[in-house]
Each structure stands twice: as C-alpha cells, then as structure tokens.
Design brief:
It is a single chain. This protein has 322 residues and is α/β, with parallel strands linked by helices. It has eight helices and eleven strands. Strands 1-2-4-3-5-6-9-10-11 form a nine-stranded mixed β-sheet, sandwiched between helices. Strands 7-8 form a two-stranded antiparallel ribbon. Helix 7 crosses helix 8. InterPro entries: AB_hydrolase_fold (IPR029058), Chlorophyllase-like (IPR017395). It comes from Spinacia oleracea (Spinach). This is chlorophyllase.
Length: 322
C-alpha cells in the first residue's frame, strides 16, 4: 500500500474488515516512566507505556484506547493486539502497571487514574508530530484483572478518572479467585445491572475455556462467579456480550511471549489450538465497538451480532442490551 495517497487511504479504511489489520501503518513506541526527554517541557508518564499509533504520512486526529494488562503479565504480550486496533485508526496505550503484585488492586486503580491525568499533559509530546490524540473520545479497557481495574475506575471505586471515559471494555475480566473470594476492592455486587455508569456503553468479551481448569494443579483462570458472565449481568444498557467458544483466557496474547512469564502463559490456563483466531476476534470486535460508540458507525458491530460477517471464531453466547 502506498502511503502517498491520503484519499485512497480513507477509502480503504472505510472498507477494511475489522478482523483484518486496518489500512493505517502503525508504530509501537516504548516510553519509559520518569525519563528525560530532549524536550525539557515534555512530562514523563507515571508508568512505562507501550503505545500503538497510526504512522501514516497524512497523520490526523485519532481516538484513544487505554488497555490494561492482566495479572502479572507484560504489556509487551499484547503487541499484536495493539497493532491490530491501532491500524484501524486508534492510539492504543498499554501501561505496565507493576512487575509484582499481591491480591489488592487499589494501587493499579490509582496508577490508571494518574496515567489518564497524564494523557492531557504529556501524550501529544511522545506521539509523532502529525498524530493528534482526541481525548474527547477516550475508551478504557482491561484484560483479566486489568478488566476489574478498568471497571473499578469507571465505577469510581477508590478514585475517579480525571477525564471522561466514553466507552468501557472488559476482555475476559476477573474479580478474584471465585464466588465469595473476590480480591480487594471488590467490583462485582451480584446484583443484576447494578453498575451505574450513566449510560456508558460496555463491551464484555468472554472465553469459553476460561472457567475450565487446565489441570488439577491450577485453578481456572476465569472462575465462575467472578468472570465475564457476572460483569455483563451487572452492566447497565447499552451492553454487548460475546463469549467465544473453544478459546481460553490468554488466547488474545501474542503468539510468542518471551521469558518465564511468557512461557507460563501457555502453562496455567486452558488454551485453544491457536491464539490467532481469538486475537483477531478480540481486536476486531474492539474496533467495531469503538467505531460504533466513538465514531457513530454501528455497521460492523451489528454485523458481528447478526453473524453477517466472516467471523474467525465460534460463539457460545451473544447477547446485547440496548
């Protein structure tokens, strides 16, 4: 694809299948916390960041998605998913919230609020000069425990977001070890549609294998009673819910995840045969959801609901409350 024809770029973007990479070339930026920058006026972020951004010659203004990693995972493990979403015209920011953590996620909630506060002060200075973030279109997402943190901040537990969150996404979110064993601060109330988010649209993605043990040595990674099903049940309208059959809790990660933690992502959770289909679906449905609620184009999201697209996975369940 030529980068010199901006008009053809826009035309291709409107036709691109959300489950394929989009028409924008992308770049991955690694921004250290408390770094010194060449520009003395640039404010460093409070946590290290992995940023996926469109990198076309035309540039432009793009909505922003903040993506929180799962328990003791690296933000680098989501690089293929970040590329996918960014290629459809979004700036994706994935912080490394911690290296080691206990059961309490309060520090992560406060850290996420601090990162959102930084967005309006420092984000534009670390992006390519022709890329402008549109913070009036800010979505918050999280995987696993990161999903719990995202919901907690949106629900104003512990602290509030310094910027308005326009859409909320839980990627196989988990709120503890099992029913009656939630980790602090608890998010789920087990009261249907109890999440009062003032009409904020919600997408919940669930894994069909997440609640199944891989073996007798380890508990399930997304136990019943504290998983995607409960997050959707407690979400108020509008809420979209997709449970993917035959794929596991970590199957949206990169194909190759390095190091001891990376190897462990294949050991602790029950997995599908390949990560690519689940990752393509997660990336595609996130793009379709953001297109609907940040850009006003529901075409792809409704087509996914109605199975009018070629979808890379099969569903256990699809449910929508408008």
């Amino acid at each position: 694809m030529s980068l010199t024809s901006s008009s053809s770029l826009d035309t291709i973007a409107s036709r691109t299948d959300v489950f394929d990479n989009g028409s924008y070339p992308t770049a991955l930026l690694r921004i250290k916390a408390e770094s010194r920058f060449n520009n003395v006026n640039t404010i460093p972020p409070p946590k290290p960041l992995l940023i996926g951004t469109p990198s076309c010659l035309k540039g432009g203004e793009f909505p922003v998605l903040l993506m929180l990693h799962g328990y003791i995972l690296s933000n680098n493990f989501y690089s293929q998913l970040i590329h996918h979403v960014a290629s459809h015209g979004y700036v994706v920011i994935a912080p490394q919230l911690y290296s080691v953590a206990g059961p309490d996620s309060r520090d992560e909630i406060h850290a996420t609020a601090a990162i959102i506060d930084w967005l309006s002060k420092g984000l534009k200075d670390v992006l390519p000069s022709n890329v402008q973030p549109n913070l009036n279109k800010l979505a918050l997402s999280g995987h696993s425990r990161g999903g719990k943190v995202a919901f907690a901040l949106a629900l104003k537990k512990e602290t509030t977001s310094p910027l308005k969150i326009s859409a909320l996404i839980g990627i196989d979110p988990v709120d503890g070890m099992g029913e009656g064993n939630q980790t602090p601060p608890p998010v789920l109330t087990h009261v249907p549609q109890s999440f009062d988010l003032n009409g904020m649209p919600i997408l919940v993605i669930g894994s069909g294998l997440g609640e199944i043990k891989k073996n007798m040595l380890f508990p399930p990674c997304a136990p019943k009673g504290v998983n995607h099903e409960n997050f959707y049940e407690e979400s108020q309208n509008p809420a979209w819910y997709f449970v993917v059959k035959d794929y596991g809790h970590l199957d949206m990660l990169d194909d190759c995840t390095n190091g001891v933690r990376g190897i462990s992502t294949y050991c602790f959770c029950k997995n599908g045969e390949s990560r690519q289909p689940m990752r393509k679906f997660v990336g595609g449905v996130i793009v379709a959801f953001l297109n609907a609620y940040l850009q006003g184009d529901h075409t792809h999201l409704i087509s996914i609901r109605d199975a009018n697209l070629t979808i890379p996975v099969m569903f256990n369940k699809v449910h929508v409350r408008m």
